[in-house]
Design a protein that fits this description.
The protein is of the alpha+beta class. The protein is built from 7 helices and 11 strands. About 30% of the residues lie in helices and about 30% in strands.
Length: about 230
């Protein structure tokens, strides 16, 4: 069994934290933010210095699945003073034990995608591609495939989106790296097929940066625990 999943199940965690979810994505070749998990304000400052400002600060825990709602996310942190302030504010807002505080690069780009995975009782693992950000629910613009499928199928998923033009040249930003997106969609299906204990995957958002590169800035892998089949 994958060691990250094994250790989470051993602790009866309902999910992998953002940090561990992204380590798993990375192992499957999906690009994620550069980030460091820290345990103190001093470590946070050193990590931010190494990454380069601006940075993002988030509380990290397998039991923290909706971080913004919990006041656990601070984006666009420009300097050390703001970093230390955000660190304290987030610690005060989140009253539960943390794996640590996550310091990550702030990714530029106004185009946000969502990649998801659910298990259908009849069809098995289904991969979803949709538009991210505030418009996700409003536009309901999504494409689904039952895993496994190949990169050509993944390219077809992109073509099915009504808002597919967003993947082309867009407001002075480069076209999205469709090949990497196709590989990511295939990989998410493979993750579920190879890891029975994964119930759901939610990459939200996957940002397309101005150069067209894709970066997962948030990820959540929900596990199938005994009380949650
Ligand atoms: P939540 O658990 O609430 O979904 P996220 O990690 O997705 O928390 O953060 C909330 C929002 O903040 C994201 O939807 C995204 O718009 C923005 N965001 C988070 N991390 C980054 C980052 N590293 N770079 C740029 N924007 C980010
Ligand atoms: Mg999110």
């Amino acid at each position: 069994m994958n060691p990250l999943i094994k250790s989470a199940l051993g602790k009866n965690d309902p999910a992998l934290s953002e940090y561990k979810s992204k380590q798993m994505l990375k192992a499957y070749g999906i690009p994620v933010t550069r980030e460091t998990l820290v345990q103190s304000p001093g470590e946070a400052a050193a990590a931010a210095q190494a990454l380069g400002y601006p940075v993002v600060v988030k509380a990290c825990s397998p039991r923290l699945m909706h971080k913004s709602e919990a006041g656990a996310v601070a984006v666009g942190i420009q300097d050390e003073a703001a970093l230390l302030q955000a660190y304290d504010r987030i610690l005060a807002a989140v009253d539960q034990p943390l794996e640590g505080m996550l310091i990550q690069e702030m990714v530029k780009g106004s185009r946000e995608l969502v990649v998801g995975l659910t298990r259908d009782a009849q069809f098995g693992p289904c991969v979803m591609l949709g538009l991210g950000g505030v418009l996700t629910e409003v536009l309901n613009d999504t494409a689904f495939r039952v895993a496994p499928f190949d990169e050509n199928e993944a390219l077809d998923m992109m073509a099915e989106l009504r808002s597919k033009k967003m993947l082309d040249h867009f407001r002075g930003q480069a076209p999205a790296d469709r090949q990497t997106l196709a590989q990511a969609l295939v990989a998410v299906g493979r993750m579920a097929l190879e890891n029975e204990a994964i119930a759901e995957i939610d990459i939200n958002p996957l940002i397309i940066d101005p150069q067209g590169r894709l970066i997962a800035v948030d990820a959540l892998i929900v596990l199938r625990t005994p009380d949650r089949k």
